[in-house]
Design brief:
about 425 residues, about 50% helix, 15 helices, 12 strands, single chain, about 20% strand, 2 domains
């Protein structure tokens, strides 16, 4: 049974559920009177610790997920600086009618740019050093529209790749392994050999290093070499054919959808691959790591939330006489249960709001906080000579914040049920026997 208490203030009055009023009152520490009655400050201290623990857990969860989102975004950006959103190739490995395919794919409303490419394997040698490489022939003016290689150039530029001059651009790790500098010449060995009466001789051609790029991914920096598409066609005897066509979309997450839609307009022997397939295992591993980190950190929130159980258990023991008096005045067990649910929920809500506010503020300003900590401690968390990503990136997703808030609030609410139920089962006569 709900009893309404009318509170008068001046000429205005308004009804309020007494369960809410008492629950709010129990949350605050009340000074004891001359009879020893009143609030228990130790219980309020435990409630404060529960709030701080919940706030710390929620803030840590928001910050860690934001940092992982930032790493995922940074890695995706670096990978897509070399790998296009969608690639169209042929089952035979050579796309002869590539101009028609390029023009047809470019008509899709989500396709921003398209560029042909030649991709083959080779071996680079210089001054006794030998390295296997993936050779990619490109059109510099078109490649700059589908990839971000131009902004990753450390020396030279893509426009230095001129057809017929046999220039080559190397990854930074590849150039370091070969100990070669811009302007020097390297020898490229193609797997397609020259058949002579004496033997099969490998095809070799000297290239002048005109540039060095560094995208921050070891896979590309150590094993990718770029040259002009016409030079690659000449070296690998492909004539006018190419290996495929690369596409850039206005929305990289629509790559699978666009690929399915393009299949209806392309020849049957063409293959369509997108960035999610070419690096599926890598991004799946990052996603699994993020989910596992969420579950692990959620345990911290769960521990903090269930600290409310001990707070409410002590509060119930401390308020046994009050519960008995309320029961004798006609309060139902449901009302008693509501009082302590309000108390526990309020403790959790305050901690949750503090955690969300602190976590969001830290996630949005982590690029300022981390450098300040590094200066204060005299150390660098991610050394540039060890990690390709030397800064802690942060990418706050509000859907993550809502998920964390919702799950934390549910855990807090669940933590209040058992102590509140035990309070509602308190027998009035037993509680008042020694009062």
């Amino acid at each position: 049974m709900h009893v309404n208490i009318v509170v008068h203030s001046g000429i205005a009055s308004f009804p309020m559920l007494y369960e809410l009023m008492i629950g709010l009152r129990y949350t605050r520490a009340q000074p004891r009177d001359s009879d020893g009655r009143g609030g228990n400050r130790f219980i309020s201290f435990i409630a404060l610790i529960s709030m701080l623990g919940l706030a710390l857990g929620v803030a840590a969860l928001i910050v860690v997920l934001s940092v992982m989102n930032g790493f995922q975004k940074e890695l995706r950006t670096r990978i897509l600086g070399v790998v296009s959103h969608v690639q169209i190739s042929s089952e035979s490995g050579e796309l002869t009618d590539w101009l028609t395919v390029l023009q047809g794919a470019a008509q899709h409303p989500k396709v921003l740019a398209a560029a042909p490419y030649v991709q083959q394997q080779g071996m680079l040698t210089y001054d006794g050093q030998v390295k296997g490489v993936m050779v990619r022939g490109i059109l510099p003016e078109a490649e700059d529209k589908v990839a971000d290689l131009a902004r990753h150039m450390r020396a030279g530029k893509l426009d230095d790749l001129v057809p017929g001059e046999f220039g080559i651009v190397l990854g930074s790790e590849l150039a370091r392994a070969l100990r070669v500098q811009p302007g020097e010449k390297v020898t490229l060995l193609a797997p397609q050999g020259l058949v002579t009466p004496a033997a099969i001789l490998p095809r070799m051609k000297q290239f002048r290093v005109v540039g060095i790029f560094e995208v921050g991914m070891f896979e590309f920096d150590s094993g990718l070499a770029l040259m002009h598409m016409e030079d690659a066609q000449t070296l690998y005897r492909m004539g006018q054919a190419v290996s495929g066509v690369r596409l850039k979309l206005d929305d990289l997450f629509a790559a699978q959808q666009v690929g399915r839609e393009l299949m209806r307009f392309l020849p049957a022997d063409t293959w369509i691959s997108d960035w999610t397939r070419s690096h599926a295992n890598f991004f799946r591993a990052v996603d699994i790591e993020k989910r596992m980190m969420f579950l692990i950190l959620l345990l911290i929130v769960a521990v903090a939330a269930f600290n409310i159980v001990s707070t409410l258990v002590m509060a119930v023991q401390d308020k046994r006489a009050d519960i008995a008096i309320l029961r004798t005045l006609g309060a139902s067990p449901r009302s008693i249960m509501s009082i302590f649910i309000v108390q526990g929920t309020l403790i959790g809500a305050i901690g949750l709001l503090a955690g969300v506010g602190g976590g969001v503020a830290l996630a949005l300003n982590i690029d300022v906080v981390v450098p300040a900590l590094e200066r204060a401690m005299g150390m660098q968390f991610l050394a540039k000579d060890v990690y390709y990503i030397s800064d802690l990136p942060s990418d706050l997703h509000w859907d993550d914040v809502w998920t964390i808030s919702s799950v934390s609030f549910v855990l807090t609410l669940l933590a209040t049920l058992y102590p509140s139920w035990r309070a509602s089962r308190t027998p009035p006569a037993e509680a008042l026997r020694y009062e």
